[in-house]
Amino acid sequence: MSDADTDRTTRPVRPVLDVWCELQCPDCRKALDDLHALRARYGDRLEIRLRHFPLEKHKHAYAAAQAAEEAADQGQAWPYVEAVLARAEELGQQGEKLLVAVAEELGLDAEEVDTALIDGRHLLIVDADQAEGKAIGVTGTPTYVIDGQRLDGGQSQEGLRERIEEIVDRLLG
């Protein structure tokens, strides 16, 4: 038995909740309450991972996903995502100008966010997330995937947090 095997058996693996999100989506904004509740309940025992699924119907969603990746590189992924979702309607009107302004408001290097939007350094991440989402059947946002189960929040948020909690509780055993 290798050291790696020992580590795997003695250290519990924390469950991962993938959240397929789009930053111009009003349903994703509503889903933030559930994500806050899950963070409050589980803390670092549950990894909540942002996955990008920009929808064609939202003109600035693809740029917003790229900006969120730059914010992640600067250590502020979720604060940035939440700030942009809170202003999703403005994003629809202002586009990339708002993405840079939000970065500046959060104390990020806004110039670097702007440059990332121009040079496309995060295109591959966004494209890979979107391709993976399509491959597993994601059609709208928010969609949650935990323990191989896909839960579609784009239809209704009703009961989803409770279902996620059941799965996490079982995984944490």
- What's the number of helices? 9
Q: Assign the structural class, choosing from mainly alpha, mainly beta, alpha/beta, alpha+beta, or little secondary structure.
A: alpha+beta
Low-confidence stretches: 1-8
Helix content: 55-70%
The ordered string of helix (H) and strand (E) elements is: HEHEHHHHHHEEH
Shape: globular
The average pLDDT score comes to 90
Alpha carbon gyration radius = 17 Å
Largest sheet entry? 4 strands, mixed
Walkthrough of the structure:
This protein is an alpha+beta fold and 173 residues long. Helices cover 58% and strands 12% of the residues. It has helices at 3-10, 26-42, 61-73, 77-86, 88-94, 96-105, 110-119, 123-135, 160-172, and strands spanning 16-21, 47-52, 143-146, 149-152. A 4-stranded mixed β-sheet has the order 2-1-3-4, with helices on both faces. The longest helix has 17 residues, at 26-42.
